[in-house]
Amino acid sequence: MTHEKLFTPPDGSTITVNPDGGLSVPDDPIIPFIRGDGIGPDIWRATDMVVVEAVKRAYAGRRQIRWFEVIAGQIAFETSGSWLPDETVEAIRHYAVAIKGPLTTPVGGGLRSINVALRHLLDLYACVRPVRYIPGVPSPVKHPERVDMVIFRENMEDVYAGIEWKKDSDEARRIISILKDNFGVVIAPDSGIGIKPISETGTKKLVRRAVRYAVDGGRDSVTLVHKGNIMKYTEGAFRDWGYEVCRREFSDLTVPEAELTGPEAKGRVVIKDRIADAMFQQVLLRPEEYSVIATPNLNGDYLSDALAAQIGGLGMAPGANIGDHAALFEATHGTAPKYAGMDKVNPGSLILSAALMLEHMGWKEAAELIYTSIEATVAKKTVTYDLARQMEGAVEVSCSGFAKSMIESME
Ligand code: NAP
Predict the structure, then answer these.
(1) Is 334 in the pocket of ligand 1 (CB under 6 A)?
(2) What's the confidence (pLDDT) of residue 3?
(3) Is residue 154 classed as helix, strand or coil in its secondary structure?
């Protein structure tokens, strides 16, 4: 693939997506990365160091990532006049796996959000957030180690579809009058209007991916989290379509919780469903009963951050946006501009996202090295300022110092 403004690596091979959705990953894959704005370059430098070392050690030099820098955000706007150049989107689509740092959200014009645009342009319909405790990280709950969940949040629909109209706009007035004239529904005339679409196709794609992940990863349950008691034809339908996917496509591999006759699921993944508000209590009171979660967009947004807080905050939470043709791994926090260029912040979120990327590529040994070395580094209490200020006896290190400490513990 050639580009006008981007410099494709001179060597390296392309990851391809198989017809069954799996990946064919060469030993020298080209992987596009977006450094990101603000603290992006700092955390990218640290991530690069850790990933290169983990891959080298795990495969004795047999495998090597060929990084390919692509641009988006503030830097892209300043150099090309576009917040999200087409070439960047095309490169991610072509190479199938990519990683990004945080991006500035344009204010007053341009794109509403670069992240949302990327999700829509690349059809990255599943937002995947693993939430697992790293021992030693300060947490507000008594037993953060009981949390080990992976949230699959639908990424394109629900109230996030961006279909809304301002109070007193022509569109809002017309919709209010159509509802009154045709359906006898009375809405206060000074209302803003938003639309909440949840489709059968979008739901099934998401739940299928979550169940496949649970089956392949030996997880014991998938919980459909919804607010179907109130929103019957959107959230309630999400639950029903979710069960339908399991019944039709995974009947030998899953069992609905309601059909369990004893404590034994006999190796099958148990499919549960919970009302969203009750689920917020459950993850606090009985987190060990939940493993994979599949949920519509808004519930998933709230639940991801609440669970991240339980295990010590967003600074260490990895994330990915995944579709059938491409996957984009990302830090879950923003650009923290006041710390830009200070080599100060915690690179944990981007480093753990890179480990998730390696798992997605099937490079599990390298991912495991990253997990064990981050655990060892936190256990030694060599941490960045954000954790150091909450941990007694901690030794504060810089962003790159944290990466170096991780590399030392790989030895
Ligand atoms: P933010 O950049 O996440 O920063 C808020 C605060 O979180 C920081 O001041 C810092 O807290 C802490 N923090 C964030 N990342 C950290 C890290 N790696 N290590 C340690 N502490 C960290 O949120 P924001 O200030 O609301 O947003 C700034 C810009 O980022 C906006 O343009 C926003 O739209 C954008 N954004 C982008 C993404 C994305 O690209 N995925 C996500 C969210 C926001 P202390 O000050 O307490 O140390």
Answers:
(1) yes
(2) 60
(3) strand
